[in-house]
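Incident log, structure service

09:12 report received: a user says their structure output differs between two submissions of the same chain.
09:20 pulled the input from the user's history:
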Amino acid sequence: METSIEFINKIHDLSTKEIAKQIRLDLKELCSNFKFSIISSRHRIDLYIMSWPIEFYSSEYKEAEKNQEREKTRELSRLNKMYTPEWSDVLKLVNTILNQYNHDNSDAMIDYFDVNYYDDVRIWKWDKPYVIV
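09:34 re-ran on a clean worker, output below:
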């Protein structure tokens, strides 16, 4: 088994399928009590978080949602206070892992896009419910 450093050195020669396999291994090592689903296609990797052991929404957000305070829920969302700090840390870690094998040499000013792959992180799939374990 090669190390992540060796893997990163040969990244430009790998398919998204091979990169997704490495991301899966990294996630399993760093987030062992979470369950992920990773789908790769030619130039895309989609990551779904399917189950987790921590609280998702902050108590402040849940209270505003319960009382149907739409302005407050929008404000908390805008200020990134919708989720618990633990959940925010997990999302940062997942994004870091997902993007460590990517490159972005794009220049939107001249409509030039050069990425190793496009990615997306979602919390559960539309056809499968999430589970808090």
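09:41 both user submissions now match this output. Likely a transient worker issue. Closing.
09:42 reviewer note: The chain is about 40% helix and 20% strand. The mean pLDDT is 87.
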